[in-house]
Amino acid sequence: MLEDVTGKRMFSHRNEDEICTLKWSDKIMHEQTLTICRFNITAIRIAIKFQNDGIRVINVTQLSKNFETDSKKISPEAKKRFEQKKSNNPRTDFILELQQNGEFEKVIAMLHKQDISLCNINSGNFLVVTVVHQIKRFECDHVAVHEEFIHCAERETLKNSKDRCERNCLLVAFFRHRKSLIILKDIFLPTTDAEQVLALEIIDSRQFVIDSDIFKL
Q: How many distinct structural domains can be found in the chain?
């Protein structure tokens, strides 16, 4: 899959006795796992989701600063679309939802409380989350990578883009593990909202690309 998306040929330096596991899951299996996200907003969502598990956040200062800056840039028009449930900006919607529930400042405080530097994460059994640009040249036994890397890289490939930013990020994220790799997937929660149900039922088949050569014997 990585070769198809990135156009790069690959080979492994692992010995035959070096076993590595790969799973798709919405759960993190090991207590000492480095969780890698493509976007700040995803890292914050992961931190919230696993805060009761004591998850730590690498280099929080810039992450929270960007989050607070984004919250101050939201226009009155964007707030109105959110209130009318007509918004299609996940980042803005997430911030406004937190503000509406009185949780925004609590999330900022939680992020700072769980701050940890990259050089300290191997000093204990830490569950950690970060964005990809923080962990170049760093490896960990157990790694979880959010599936957004794959979607972003696939879109870049389908556009025949000369810019390889997303594909390079994909490669960085998928080669940080030594023993296990989890591709962390988002699961749709049940909904009774008719418009949301209809949206989930409408699937654009053009997003699925099948290479017929795969099925040739």
A: 1
Range of the domain at 91: 2-6+22-190
pLDDT for position 187 = 55
pLDDT band at 112 (very low <50, low <70, confident <90, very high): very high
Measured in residues, the chain has a length of 217
H or E element in which residue 100 lies: helix 90-100
Phi-psi region of 58 (alpha: psi -120 to 50; beta: other; left: phi over 0): beta
114-148: pLDDT as tens digits: 999 888 887 778 899 999 988 878 888 899 999 99
**What does the pLDDT look like over 71-103, one tens digit per residue?**
999 999 999 999 888 888 888 999 999 999 999
Domain membership of residue 131 (yes or no) is yes
Amino acid at 205: S
Distance CA 175, CA 187 (A): 24
Beta bridge partners of 34: 128, 143
The answer to whether residue 32 sits within a structural domain is: yes
Is residue 139 assigned to a domain? Answer: yes
Amino acid at the residue 169 = C
